[in-house]
Amino acid sequence: MDPVARRALALLACIQFLLILDTAIINVAAPSIGADLHISPAELSWVANAYLVTFGGLLLLSGRAADLLDRRTLLVAGLGVLVAGSIAGAVAGDALLLVAGRALQGIGAAAAAASAFAVLIDLFPEGPERHKALGVFAAMAGAGGATGTVLGGVLTSWLGWRSTFGLNILAGLALAVLAARVVGPTVRRRGAAGGFDLGGALLSTVGLGLLAFALVNTGVDGWTSPRTVVPGVAGVLLLGLFAVVERRVSAPLMPPEVLRRPLLRTANLLSGLAQVVLFPMFFLISVHMQTVLDFTPVQGGLALLPLSVTVILVAGNTGRVIGRFGLRAVMVVGFVIVTAGLAWLSRLHPDGTFVGDVLFPSLLLGVGLPLVAITTNVAATLQAAPEEVGLASGLINTSQQFGSVIGLAVLSGVAAAWTLDSADPTSDAALTSGFSAAFVVGAVLALVATAIATTLRVGAPEPAPATAGTNAQSPDTTAH
What we know:
This protein is an all-alpha fold. It has helices at 3-37, 41-68, 71-91, 95-123, 128-158, 162-182, 198-221, 226-246, 256-259, 262-291, 297-303, 305-325, 327-345, 354-381, 389-420, 428-453. It folds into 3 domains: 1-184, Growth Hormone, Chain: A, CATH 1.20.1250.20; 197-252; 261-459, Up-down Bundle (Growth Hormone, Chain: A).
């Protein structure tokens, strides 16, 4: 790998690490935040959810912006907005400012995530080098989730919850400075010279934001609450209107021709399904360890380190495995392993132990997670033309983000409903039965994903659709 590309990959992986860490670290600090600022449970839930709503709502727009604007500028600006939101969170004295800061963090994270992924795809052409780069990305995501849990507990216990925002400020500033130095300016791409679809941008952003709001609100007010149903229906209607508008404008935000590609549709579906079952797994295992096994938050985070180490080791070799056995075969095997790991976790016992109930199935999931994450990312970007790289990154990030939100809402809802049906909902037996039921549902969904993955057809990249007003330009160069 070229030394310049290696430096850029290290930077981009650190950005990915920070964005995932930011999601995990606040969950551990949330109880301390609520106690210190006297925030009600409903308000406290939005300390985490505000980030998810703005992040999910802006990913598609951010991805398209990465095709039309300079990616280095967008990346640095996204990190700058993330830092600004972190400063607001660090000095917040009430729930309103804290939630506003978290929302601002989500806006910055969306821009940074979409542009970082687009830069990575630009740097590494399709083949073993891209597979290896995506493996590093997947490894850093797994490490960020576990490290966020550990750091959240350590920082909150030793320095207070505001230090978790302080960490974002320091890391975000450092990464922004490095990004300005390591990532080169974007050369305008062929097909990116058309106008900007403002109507489509507004419809997609508001529609996705409302849909994300509805999904995360299920954990606050339930599935049938007007506060859930009304924004959910409105979001779906706006996204339907977005689809109609995109067929009529000359420079669509989401060209209909792109969505007609079977490989892209299937890959995004599978990527979303993977997050539906894997993202809640971290949350449910952590809650089980802290409520049933009586682990402290720090112990719970440390208990997830074997899983994270496994993810890192497997991710580093996934590109080589894909080269030997093929993309579809590795993807199918990955989903089979995830299915087996979730089925194994469903056999939790209320009087069990970490080693007996959690360790070995979590290691199995540590093998399946990178196989699934990397192969779906490769498939989703396989047919992206140079002028569509940002769009492809926005799509795959949106699929993953909404998969995470849907999965957490559904599986945590299954666990809660199953627990409440027990004679003594507060007992370890009731809690464990709820977690087990959620893992069974996750295993079934992973099995469905396995079946879909067997239908994947990997063909040659398709030419980009003609776009009005485009000019032939040099291909993009994003690092020097």
